[in-house]
Amino acid sequence: MTLLRASIAILLPALLLVVGGTAAGAILTVRMSLHAPGAGAGLFEPGSVSLSSWASMGDAHHRGIVLTTILTGLGVSLLSTAIGALLAMLAAPFAGLRFMGVMVLILAPRLSGVLASLFGLQRLLPRGWIGSLIAETWLLVPYSTLILVIALRGIDPHLVPAARGLGASRWQVLRWIIWPLSLPAVALTLQLGWVWGFGAFLGPLFLGGPDQSTLAVEIHHEAFDLGRWPRAAAEGVVLMVLTASAMAAGSWRPRP
Amino acid sequence: MTNPIIARLSGWFVLILLQIPLVMTFWASFSADSLLTLPTTRWSMRWYVDFINEPQWSRAAFRSLIAACVAAGIAVPLATAAAWSLREWPQRFRYYVLGLLLMPATVSGVALGLGLLQVAYAVGLAGQWPCLIGAHTLLGFPVALLVVRMGFTPSLQELEAAAAGLGAKSSVVAWRITLPLLWPWLVASAVAVFVISLNDAVVAVFVCGPDTETLPVVAWRQLRHSAGPMVAVAGTITMMASLGMMGVTTAGLWFLRFRKQSAGGSL
């Protein structure tokens, strides 16, 4: 019991950081969405209570944005998982320095700076939904690959030679050994891709057209370009609900 | 594991595609022209000289470096304490607590930035250093926790139990057993937080004030209007700093492992 108390005590600073930063931020975002926009320098009118920021959430403009956000999330999830699987199959068989070298190349888009990546992507991709989808996928692929590489390297190394020894072709090994054993990791990658894809921001901001705004881009636009912070907060709440729903949907498993 | 040849070829093709934007940025940073056109044939270091001479850019780079070091310095001890604590929690609560601690990684950067800005206003720290450091610590914490947790292996727990069984105090076990075995993971998690902080533009846009603008924020503002060679220079410097930090750390860890093996160390 003393050990448990001690462990709770040393966990407190981390809990304070996470709850103070994330949960308190979420609560304050809900609160700000219920204020009237600030007339002066403030983010909102202190002491005011207003639903004006929520009034427009159901209009055609916002429905379109939510639809783009969902489609982007699904597209990013599927593409990053498929590309991640290809790269994971490439990297997993290597060992030692070769493995590290391939992994550095796979993780390079994230490790070497989003700015460097975006700068290059802006020159390579067309503006529009496809461009923003590819850019966002490009930024997410390193994470997807990492999850899948860990799963593939966790497969019992004796299974594949055993199957090959029994006469299975490479495709049969892939279909009947590797695919079923890596399925939980594929499901996790799809779920995380979906959740992160809902928050797509950099791709749509720098490569998307005006009609391909996602919720994250719209929040930034409302807050920094138009100064309508309560409306940005309302959109932030919608984004958080959408992300939480995606998490919950992805975590649901039918009862055996 | 042997994969079909078509899968391997596709994998190599995608891997090469992944590098192209980075190569283009690197290439563009040495362009001699003010207006960016690729491919360029005139090479110059003028934009790197300008980067160093222009206080807006050089100060932002210095701030980024400070923020990344401090965030790593805070996030790693917090993550280590949390990972140690999680071992002692009953199984049925452990995953709920872990889920709670990993929450910042599942929230969109924009939603997180929006929330953090209001927390900063509520405590009167908007646009100040503690706000930026706190935000980057929060961003890096989930990754640091996952990395450090990988170091708490069953064999480490067995060694700790053996030492405790032989009468070692918990402080001695922590100092002589846990930390020496854990420190490569601590270094790896510090590097991860450093890289995350150095590269963050999304949350920083919300929490930075005029005196705390980091390099990605300054580059971000430029990138939104016109992507000139200075943005390519900023991207290349960030890329080099991240890769350099990782390279030095990896080489250091390999060297120490090699020296320990040469000296006959078993761990």
Give a written overview of the molecule.
- The complex is a heterodimer of chains A (256) and B (267).
- Helices cover 77% and strands 0% of the residues of chain A.
- By secondary structure, chain A is an all-alpha fold.
- The longest helix of chain A is centred in the N-terminal third of the chain and has 32 residues, at 2-33.
- Chain A is globular and about 75 Å long.
- Chain B is an all-alpha fold.
- In chain B, α1 packs across α12 (229-262).
- Chain B is globular.
- The mean pLDDT of chain B is 86.
- The chains are: A mainly alpha (256), B mainly alpha (267).
- The interface between A and B is large, with 87 and 81 residues.
State the gist of this model.
Chain A is an all-alpha fold and 256 residues long.
As an assembly, this protein is heterodimer
Beta-strand percentage range of chain B? under 5%
Summarize model confidence as the mean pLDDT of chain B.
86
Total of domains of chain A: 1
According to CATH, the homologous superfamily of chain A is: MetI-like
- Please tally the β strands of chain A and state the result: 0
The CATH superfamily title of chain B: MetI-like
Computed Rg of chain B? 22 Å
Order of helices and strands of chain B: HHHHHHHHHHHH
* Largest sheet: number of strands, sense, barrel closure of chain B: none
